[in-house]
Amino acid sequence: MFGKGTLRAATAITLLAAGGVSAETLTIAIVNNGHMINMQKVAEAYTAETGVELNWVSLEEGVLREQVTSDTATGGGQYDIINIGMQEAPIWGAAGWIEPLKFSDSYDLDDILPAMRNGLSHEGQLYAAPFYGESSMVMYRKDLTDAAGVSIADNDSWDNVKAAAAAIHDPDNGVYGACLRGKPGWGDNMAFITTVVNSYGGAWFDADYRPVLDSPEWNAAINFYVDLLSNYGPPGSEGNSFNEILALYNEGKCGMWIDATIAASFLEVDGVAYAQSPNAGNPVGANWLWAWAMAIPAGSPNAEAASKFIEWATSKDYVQAVGTHPEFGWGAVPTGQRASTYAIPEFQAAAGFAAAELAAIDSAAPEATDLKPYVGVQFAAIPEFPEVGSAVAQEMAAALSGAKSVEDALAASQKAADSIMKEAGYYD
User: Fold this and answer.
1) Dist CA 263 CA 408 (whole Å)
2) How deeply is 144 buried, as exposed, middle or buried, from its count of CB atoms within 10 A (0-12, 13-18, 19+)?
3) CB atoms within 10 A of CB 127
4) What domains can you pick out in the chain, each with its CATH number?
5) 20 to 30 A from 79, CA-CA: which of 20, 148, 164, 303?
6) Which phi and psi angles does 284 have, rounded to 5°?
7) Distance CA 260, CA 254 (A)
8) CA nearest 228: which of 257, 188, 203, 267?
């Protein structure tokens, strides 16, 4: 049943089956990104060994967040396993919305990168297991920058990045200088925008959790963002998220892309180089930190089977199964999750992005600071943030499309955020 390269994964699956997983069906809500799509194919072996059927519900990022949040908060019971991230996991765990995770010793929890383990835990208890983790970095076409006589350095200035984008921008030949997220969503356009704001010295809230979106730092960051994409980005950028830009990049239409490090696993063009995220003088928070993780909604009748599947799907053996899979290989394994992955020689040989990715993850700074008095890089780890971030996301998309001025969009953002935080009781 299994090829030579999948023996380790097969052994792990067999052990799980011996542990008493009964034949049943697990309904799993996943984001429609490449690693999750690959998992559906790899997990056919899991079903073959255990008899557990897997019903996959694959959703676009924003839709997934909305549906999973609604179902989990109301105890809807639609899913046995859900994809969530660092914003939700500790909050939902503390609220009792998701089950605490406990795995066997062979899982090697200490192998999970500390940034991922900490971000998915509450008071030391893991509530979601990272399927893959990421920071953000610059992915650029070195052939284009070399031809234009420009370069992009680690932690470069935004001014130099804009100059490089201008130099390689060639829309007559179908190449755009910079492709960046513009689709509205607290985890879509606001993920990238927040890192730009951070690098300009801005923040979402002050120490009293009053929004500060009308600050000079926000104004400077958003004007820069709108100017960069309006002049050197593809048309319709306000509709582009991760998958849309990945498609553009692989069609040879993007000179540079600043986004999730995980994207490097799926780039198919030659000559890609990597650099640590730019900043405008404040490097703290210039690159984000995230994990797409797997959690079990509280009260799931299939919690035991769900836990066993999550343990397998986030294990070292799963990494081996992908690396040795005839359709995928070592360049397509889920990364940003386990330290041991970065020590695998086959992975090192296949993944030219590995060192840059790990450096970005290690340098991300989610801790609260005097400038940013909340946990989180591209989000704030408070229950109200998804509502605040979603409202502001719509305004930023309006500014990018030209429907509003930056100043009007920020004024509307400040008003909306202030109303939400007042209603939540942070201040009168």
Assistant:
1) 33
2) buried
3) 23
4) 4-134+289-351 (3.40.190.10), 136-288+366-423 (3.40.190.10)
5) 20
6) -70, 120
7) 15
8) 257
- Residue 412 Cα distances to 5, 306, 391, 398, 418, angstroms: 56, 43, 9, 11, 10
Helical axes 303-313 vs 7-18, angle rounded to 10°:
160
Report residue 384 as tokens: 């109200």
pLDDT in 10s for each residue of the chain, 428 residues? 223 333 333 334 333 433 444 459 999 999 999 999 999 999 999 999 999 999 999 999 999 999 999 999 999 999 999 999 999 999 999 999 999 999 999 999 999 999 999 999 999 999 999 999 999 999 999 999 999 999 999 999 999 999 999 999 999 999 999 999 999 999 999 999 999 999 999 999 999 999 999 999 999 999 999 999 999 999 999 999 999 999 999 999 999 999 999 999 999 999 999 999 999 999 999 999 999 999 999 989 999 999 999 999 999 999 999 999 999 999 999 999 999 999 999 999 999 999 999 999 999 999 999 889 999 999 999 999 999 999 999 999 999 999 999 999 999 999 999 999 999 999 99
Instruction: Answer yes or no: pTM beyond 0.90.
Output: yes
- 421 is written with which tokens? 């935080």
Amino acid at 185: G
Joined tokens for residue 341: 């992955």
